[in-house]
């Protein structure tokens, strides 16, 4: 699989944005009324949308040349499931332990969870035990659809993605996904348009046409997305919406950023900061664990006590929150997530070995 550092750097930026967004809630709860984080951090909840765009891009990368191949399809399914579940289950059981030890601490404002559905990451009408895992339910749906696409010829992928997108746009233009049962809410939600946008970008990236795009156009696209697209999204508060307009607008703007940076990296015109790349590597661990870490620091803040007339307690605990999230993320990635992924990769290579193709003889031609 080709490694694009721009994608990892964007993953890192996305997860830091999500952490900042949730840090604002902790600050509001424990600061005693004074706030340092501005309302601007509401924008950063769109880090999840950026994850969806990147996910679509990556799915095209990992499946190139592997369509209509039963062994490769099994490898794809195993790799996707092993990427999602083991790390998620760690935080499921940690959260479950906290819930059993201290009832009323977890998800107190969102009602009880269906433990079996939460464990399996299946759609249901209750909040998941690990609240941020709602996005993983969407990811699993995207993976399921992409698995189905692997049974077709690879050259038909653009048409199939287009049909998926057209169907979603048509449905969401005429009906409301919220009127359906939990499973259909996932299947019909326009979030998939962001995943499709990422997939379409990857198809363009690997096509012969991408090399013909003038570098000046690439830079212009990136600047328009950052200097016009981001302010418009914030100005219209699209992060508070869940409908078609948000998904199309955010998908277009974030897609422009992802595609532009990938092209600029290929042309060796940018270098992604190492810190963001490493944060991107551990972004899944950070995403799953950060609410627990923030909760611990929040309770520490509560014990110390707020200083309503001083901003220094805010500054101290906000820095402590971010440092704790990153330090825990680095340790958990190094000693749990990465070893599990390495084991899964080795197991997949042994179990789903791809037989080398036999050279054709003259009689077989």
Automatic annotation (TrEMBL):
The chain crosses the membrane at residues 44-67, 88-106, 126-152, 159-177, 183-205, 217-237, 243-264, 284-302, 314-333. This is Acyltransferase. PANTHER family: ACETYLTRANSFERASE, BLR2367 PROTEIN. Keywords: Acyltransferase, Membrane, Transferase, Transmembrane, Transmembrane helix. It holds the Pfam family Acyl_transf_3. InterPro entries: Acyl_transf_3_dom, Acyltransferase_3. One of its GO terms (molecular function) is acyltransferase activity.
